[in-house]
Amino acid sequence: MKKVVLFMLAALMTMGLAFAEVSFVDEAYEAYEEALFVNVTPNDYALSVCQELYDYSVRIDAVELTVDEAVAANSASRELLRSIDKDCDLIDRDLDYCEDSIEASQRSGAIDLAMFRLLDDELERLDNRLDRIDDTLEYYFNYDD
Length: 145
Hints:
The protein is an all-alpha fold. Helix content is about 80%, strand content about 0%. It contains five helices and no strands. The termini are far apart.
């Protein structure tokens, strides 16, 4: 269910449509937050990072949807592949910045080690999704950045 909601949200973003109902977005974020913080009580900083991670996840969902459509159609222009690659690079850069911020927060004591590991694991999961997108582009379209 969560994956379907996120793909629907990504599809709306890809089409450039405004969100008709804020509650839909709120419910999707709440589900993401609930899944991330199982048996853990986050502080304000962790909640703000969770919102960032959710935003990155939605951006990755949109790129995955574009890639899935290109694979299903068995065609992708060079411009589309470059655009996907650029989107992945931008998201990857943002994830790196977020990771640096989380590491600094853990060193300063803003979050404890357990929360750091939880957030870092989620960052790694998002980064792995970007890697799978790159692998898909290379496998189906012989596109290697």
